Amino acid sequence: MLACVWLGKESLEMQEVPVPAITDPEDVIIKITGTTVCGSDLHLYHGEILQLKKGDIMGHEMMGIVDKVGDRVTKVKPGDRVVAAFNVACGKCDYCKKQLYTSCDTTNDSTFQEKLYGMRIAGVMGYSHFVGGFAGGQAEYGRILFANTNLIKVPDSVPDEKALFLSDIVPTSFHAVWDTGCQENEVIGIWGLGPIGLCAVQWLRNVFKAARIIVIDDVPERLHLAQIHWDAEPINFREDSDVNKKIFELVPGGLDRAIDCAGFRYTKSLLHKVEHAVGLETDSPEVLNECLRAVKKFGSIGIIADYAAYTNHFLVGALMEKGIRLIGCGQAPIQRHWETCLKHIESGLFDPTTILTNRYPLETTPEVYKRFDQKDAGIIKVFIETKFSNKPTTGTPALSNPDE
Questions:
Q1: pLDDT in tens, 237-283
Q2: How buried is residue 25: exposed, middle or buried, by Cβ count under 10 Å (0-12/13-18/19+)?
Q3: Mean pLDDT in the chain?
Q4: Which is deepest, 27, 114, 167, 218, by most CB within 10 Å?
Q5: How far apart are CA 343 and CA 320, in angstroms?
Q6: Cα dihedral value 277, 282, 285, 287, nearest 10
Q7: Diameter of the chain measured on Cα atoms
Q8: Nearest to 165, CA basis, from 214, 190, 202
Q9: DSSP helix/strand/coil, 211
Q10: Which domains does the chain have, with CATH numbers?
Q11: How many angstroms separate the Cα of 165 from the Cα of each of 100, 170, 173, 177?
């Protein structure tokens, strides 16, 4: 089969690799009909995630048609249209029984992560041996482990372009808003308007009914999208370098809550650029420090952006003295939110295609990474089709080439 593999920092290649086989009674093999490139995939692209190996198949988001099933698979059958969870959960351990699927005790064998974090989180599809070393979904076929837990059947009423994003960004963004404790009529700040951030804005406006939403980014197209669709109030940090000053001009009392959807890659000051470059820190705290200054006393901050290890100059005093709840939302346990998110998609309250900007063929995936990394004007979220895909749904982007 054709698959996108990692060869090294900023080096990807399409290769012919073996089609996966069933090796466990709960395995399912799917013909992949849709995949995508996520903002968190860029950390892999830049070699910033630990324990990547040459030849790893990329991509943690996929949907498809069930092709083969193991003897113990009871929830799906060949021919079913399904979406796979980005995480790998056994469904049987104590964490899975509590619906904390991304804390599964049995699906990640990284001793390095256990040493670094004190214990291991669950495995993740297509996301390095730091989280299990499972082959990803930027390919023509995918092997889904523990399929009774990690697949959801999709109704015919939901087209592929909406269903695919149940694999990660739709339930992950919902989890961020929910886990941060956002309530109706509150003022919420969102740092970072990648796909997760934009989805969080849509949840806040349409479902959680925020009074005001302040959004911080430096891509004008994304700020404009949040403003025109969901009445968010934009701050471009290239134009307003003192983000906190601008927030307090807009909201003199400060934010009720903040959600960090930006992540560890984004350094602003020269100090952190240097420390990051020479390895004195892995993660920059600058976004979190802005959140800590902007949020009201005894407010809360949710972190859904990727952070990996260590940071310097974190404003811990503000965290304690202001009584702020800093919430690591974790790799979101998306299976617990699947039914809720699907219900809102079917009702029309949430539409993932609002941020869908492009559709590309699988063989162009390495070039898609380059364009996505460069934040080319207009590109936000892509649908990558395979030879098994349906034609584009009316009203969604037509197939094109990323070089065009």
A1: 999 999 999 999 999 999 999 999 997 667 888 898 899 888 889 88
A2: exposed
A3: 95
A4: 167
A5: 39
A6: 80
A7: 61
A8: 202
A9: coil
A10: 2-153+351-385 (3.90.180.10), 172-328 (3.40.50.720)
A11: 20, 6, 11, 17
